[in-house]
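Exam review. A common question shows you a sequence with its structure tokens and asks you to describe the fold in words. Practice with the pair below. Do the first one on your own.
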Amino acid sequence: MSAPSDRDLIQRARRGETEAFGELVTRYQTSAFNVCYRILHERAEAEDMAQESFIRAHERLSTFDEERPFGPGMRGVDDERGPASGWIGRHLATLNTGNSSPLRAVGMGTRPQRSLSGTVPVSALRSIADFHLGGDQRALQQMRVPLNTVYADDVPGQDTLSIMDRLERLDPLAYTAARSAKYPDTEFGLALKQTAMLIKAEVGLEVSAIDVGGWDTHFAQGSTSGLMPNLMEDLAEGLAAFHADMFDRMRDLTTVSMSEFGRRASENGSLGTDHGHECMMMVLGGNVNGGKVHGEWPGMREGQLIGPGDLAVTTDYRDVLSEILTRRLNNEALSDIFPNHEPRMLGIIG
């Protein structure tokens, strides 16, 4: 007896047969994991991403193209618009700016953030010194000679080498920020400083993604001192320094601060807070209607909190990002970047 086709299994799964969808998962789980692993280079995260892709595929069975095999048609595994890609990755894939720079999109750190995942190559950068081998001129020359030969008649290759030349002249330790801006002596401060340096060096940077960890404050969170206040101080001082340093270019920049989870409204038994439903976002930059809180305050009184005691979500983060994409980045492909979402413009950008 021959195995059922993908089309047959999709049709049965649409009718609610869980065994049919389970067979599709079994059939394609290895290839889905392999694709995700090539993106993330981390087994646990790749397993999570592959599982998320199957979940999204199940949610969208009603719109699935029966004529396509299930594996290649899984939105987000081989499609830049799906959950195995990030929203910034989908933005890059749907907006051709003619920018071939290897530093068009940079993830500050040892590997790119998941929001950058997609079909457009991105660079991971922990330190600008990594690009000029820590100042080792002999090692740099040994690398450049064969590269010059290989890319002698290649325009994009020569552009890349030109960018490397500019990076050689950049030194975060010797950098003097404008307007006496003082970046905090932290990984976040260094990432912001290097972002400013890349922008000023005009190496083709369009996107810089920075992670700030440590916010999972289940224990000893603190109020005026402790873990949370220290994190907030680092974030505030870093953003303030970046704004001061880049003030003359601020009309061309948009900075977004966001989190994938929030905190519970009340303290737990360990002087911390557990995971919450809501979060907050901050937007800084050109044409931003700033100095105010956008959205509705849901309240914290009895009957206003949801679930086990969380603030209610009143603003969809995709609405904020959609407005930035269209009004700041000139990308109208919102249906590809945020599938199945009808954005609502909030007036954050003037």
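Now try the second one, then compare your answer with the model answer below.
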Amino acid sequence: MHPSKTAVLRTLASAPAVLLAAALLALLALPTREQPSRPRFARLVAEAKLRVPELTPAELSALLAGPGAPLVVDVREPDEWARGHLPGAVHLSKGVLEREIEAVAPALDADIVLYCGSDARAALAGDNLRRMGYTRVRNLRGGLRAWTEAGGPTTQE
């Protein structure tokens, strides 16, 4: 049986830093509505999220409106991309991202923001890009779902 998220948060409030990190991983790995019975996957995503910084939809929107906008990469499957994606995004599904990213972003210090439907696949993809040497990789927290809920535009072009 999993501890409640409230119980884990209470533990966090009084824990030393080392235990804090372990408890955070435990909290992030608890079943959610999206992944109720996939604890190993949830743990893998939680660990990746510790290594890949996240942006909110509002933060990404501000970056896209300013100079030097980041490269935005949609890592979803082709059918998901076809149903709608962020304007200006590049499509490199998670299955080909590592093979194709160097053609799109040859510089290891390229500013890259990844997104998927919710943010799990993008976190895993971002973790792999960081392992490849990319130093400025971020993940859109909540993915396309959060982007559209925040009023962000999408396109099918």
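Model answer, second protein: The chain has a mean pLDDT of 86. The first strand starts at residue 54 and ends at 55. Full marks require stating both points clearly.
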